[in-house]
Amino acid sequence: MQQLAIGETVQPPVVETRDGYTSISRAETLRLQYAGVYSVSWSGSVRWPFPGAAPLSSAFGWRPSPCNGCSSDHRGIDLNPGDGTPIYAIADGTVSLQQEEGGGYGNHVYIEHLINGQRVRSLYAHMQSGSSPLRTGDVVKVGDFVGLVGATGMVTGPHLHLEIDIDGQVVDPFVWLTENAS
């Protein structure tokens, strides 16, 4: 038990320095990781899902789970252009699945593409209910309307969750689009 007599001077504890280590937030890490890299050209056979750059709120890979039931193994990227923003197909392809309320993904669409000789599948998730005109089997062209940014499924707010799968292997959509989009 510690005691302090009235009138005694209390000295603050001595804190040793940390050999130059610093700590930054996850948001700052993402900003530094993607700063100066993300620009959009709205032309070509492969495009970003929006005609302009959108804020990135969650990167590909491990992350702290943002909500109860949300994944910590994040298989895509989360883009936040604003609730109700139109989402567009990243390339020509065929809709392999359109599901209005598909569990954690909410209203989502899968599109199969053939790009540079590889089977590429893109997933557009958490769209507003009823916003996608697409149905399984529909043929789409690059830049065709897919749906509207929403907050269906397991989410903390409105965003587009975008995944890219190449020949059965999930890859970082940010890296893949940076390398392949015009």
What does this protein structure show overall?
- The protein is mainly β and 182 residues long.
- The protein has a single domain (26-180), classed as Glucose Permease (Domain IIA) (Distorted Sandwich), CATH 2.70.70.10.
- The model has no long low-confidence stretch (mean pLDDT 82).
- The chain has two helices and twelve strands.
- Strands 1, 4, 6, 7, 8, 9, 11 and 12 form an eight-stranded antiparallel beta sheet that branches. A two-stranded antiparallel ribbon has the order 2-3. The protein has a two-stranded antiparallel sheet with strand order 5-10.
Task: Give a brief description.
With about 180 residues, the chain is mainly beta. It has helices at about 25-35, 175-180, and strands at about 55-60, 60, 75, 75-80, 85-90, 95-100, 105-115, 120-125, 140, 145-150, 160-165, 170.
Write the layout of secondary structure elements.
Blueprint: H1 26-34, E1 56-58, E2 61-62, E3 73-74, E4 77-79, E5 86-88, E6 93-99, E7 107-115, E8 118-127, E9 139-140, E10 145-148, E11 160-166, E12 169-171, H2 173-180
Antiparallel strand pairs: 1-4, 2-3, 4-11, 5-10, 6-7, 6-9, 7-8, 8-11, 11-12
**Integer average pLDDT:** 82
- How large a portion of the residues is in β-strands, by DSSP E? 25-35%
Amount of helix: under 10%
Oligomer: single chain
Task: State the CATH superfamily name.
Answer: Glucose Permease (Domain IIA)
CATH topology: the name is: Glucose Permease (Domain IIA)
**Terminus-to-terminus distance:** 69 Å
CATH architecture: Distorted Sandwich
Number of domains: 1
**How many whole angstroms does the radius of gyration measure?**
22 Å
Could you give a short account of the major beta sheet? 8 strands, antiparallel
